[in-house]
Each structure stands twice: as C-alpha cells, then as structure tokens.
Write a structure and sequence with these properties.
The chain is built from 3 helices and 14 strands. By secondary structure, it is an alpha+beta fold. The chain has one domain. The longest helix is centred in the first third of the chain and has 24 residues. The termini are far apart.
Length: 280
C-alpha cells in the first residue's frame, strides 16, 4: 500500500509540473540592441562615401586630372584638398574641424548636414579619374568621430555607371569610449543622385545589399536589405526602406525605417509582434 502511495505522489508531482509549464506564457522577444547598433553603423558608413562622391563630382582635379578646383561653399564642412604632386592615383584629404594648437589632435569638429558634429580626417585615394566607369576610391578613417562615437575601418567603392556604385566596408568599428563597441562589414550597391553639385546637402542615395556584424553585447547578426534604404544628406537618419535582421539565438526580425519622413523612428517586427524603437 505504501509503495502505491509513493508512486501516486510521484505521478501527481510530475502532472503538476507539466501543468504549470504548459500554463507559462512565452516571454515576447523585444530585443532591439542589434537593430539599434546596426543603424549606428549603417547610417554613418553609408554617409562617408556620399560625402566623398559629392565633393569628387564637383572637383576637376578628381574628375579628369590635376587642375582647377570647382569650390564648394566656403561654409561647407569638411575642408578638403588634393595631393597635386602626382597624377593618379590622387589622394583627397577631408578634414572635419581643425587642430588649432598643433598637437596633432583636433580641438573641435564641425556641424555637417544632418545636424551631427563630425571631427577627424578621411583620406580618399582615387585610382583613376572619377568620371571613368571602373575607377575606384578607397577611404581610410583617421581619428574620425561622429557625436563622440569613433569610427574605424576601410571603405572601398567602385564606380559602375554615372550614378551606380559598389561599396564594401572592411573591419568597420564604432566605439563609444569604454562603454561599447560595434563591429560591422558590408557589401552594397548605391544609386546616388547628387542634385546640385554645389549643394552637398541635397544628395540622396538608395542602398541595397547585405551586412554582418557584432553588437555591443557580443551577439553576431546579419542583414539583408529587402526594400532599398533611402539616405538623404539633409537628414541624420535613414528615412525609408526595410531589412531582415538575423540575430544569434533569436528569431528573424524585420526593420522598417518608415515612409520618407525625417525622424528617428523605426519599427521592429518579431514573430508577428511590431513595436517602435529609436534610431541613433
């Protein structure tokens, strides 16, 4: 009798555990760190080439051979110049802000279109006249900061047609002091409309392709753009487009950047649940 009672108690305990577990609701996946970190890298690494291209298409030294500048507005940031000692390859140096003390570090940055403070140097090496299809430009970042975040990496771009370009980012990194680090690489196609060559702030680009990286929590992710991203130089955020984000250990999520309004809002959809998050 005692044996039967023990078996009954054990079966009852197992039944209760199964009942409790079956009644537990699965916690919703609301992780936005990977989406936010990708937008931090996405926004700036795509912008760097747009700035470089905007200057290059308006400068006769880059378009053809060393020669007379077609200057940008005097209040435009960055300040830039060409290495005029050689023919191609030609190096274009762009400085955001200035070193006023001569100690080798910039003392202040400058407010660029999109209302972010940028500080540091981008060196762009053009393999051939930028008016020729198949020519390339490679950009290196030197102590380059955007609103206090340091960006590192190599950006390489090949001109396909007059307004279509292939871009890769290698060893991309965004670091916010000792707080966090984001790693990021991409392979992209950009379609660029420069608008008025003397008004860099009106440039618009459409971006498609893939990316991968590691967020600030050490989780790996990959990106596949499903609707081209629209990047407007006058806006600090991506204004429209959509992508699928695959995150280590999580379900796939969809990021939608909106319908063209310049704001810091985007939506994240995970397993049918949609909520809004802030871009940075």
């Amino acid at each position: 009798m005692k044996k039967h009672l023990i078996v009954f108690c054990l079966l009852s305990s197992v039944f209760c555990l199964l009942l409790v577990n079956s009644c537990k609701k699965e916690e919703p996946d609301t992780e936005t760190t990977s989406a936010t970190d990708n937008s931090i890298a996405e926004g700036e690494f795509s912008r760097m080439f747009i700035v470089t291209n905007s200057i290059a298409v308006g400068d006769s030294g880059v378009q053809f051979q060393k020669g007379t500048y077609l200057p940008l507005p005097t209040n435009y940031c960055p300040n830039y110049w060409l290495d005029q000692d050689t023919l191609f390859p030609i190096t274009m140096t762009m400085e955001f802000g200035a070193d006023t003390t001569g100690d080798g570090t910039f003392d202040y940055g400058c407010n660029t279109p999109g209302e972010k403070i940028r500080m540091g140097t981008i060196k762009a090496v053009f393999s051939a006249p930028w008016s020729i299809n198949g020519s390339t430009v490679t950009m290196d970042l030197i102590d380059y900061y955007v609103s206090g975040i340091k960006y590192e990496g190599t950006i390489s771009v090949t001109r396909n047609t007059s307004n279509s370009f292939t871009q890769t980012v290698t060893n991309g990194k965004a670091t916010n002091g000792s707080l966090w680090t984001i790693l990021w690489n991409c392979s992209r196609t950009l379609t660029v409309d420069i608008g008025n060559p003397t008004e860099p702030g009106d440039d618009v680009s459409l971006i498609s392709g893939t990316a991968n990286g590691t967020d600030r929590n050490g989780k790996t992710f990959s990106i596949d753009i499903t609707t081209p991203l629209r990047r407007e130089m006058a806006c600090r955020w991506i204004v429209s487009g959509a992508m699928t984000l695959k995150l280590e250990g999580k379900k796939d999520r969809t990021i939608d950047f909106g319908n063209g309004t310049c704001d810091d809002r985007a939506t994240l959809t995970i397993a049918g649940n949609t909520f809004e998050f802030a871009l940075q």
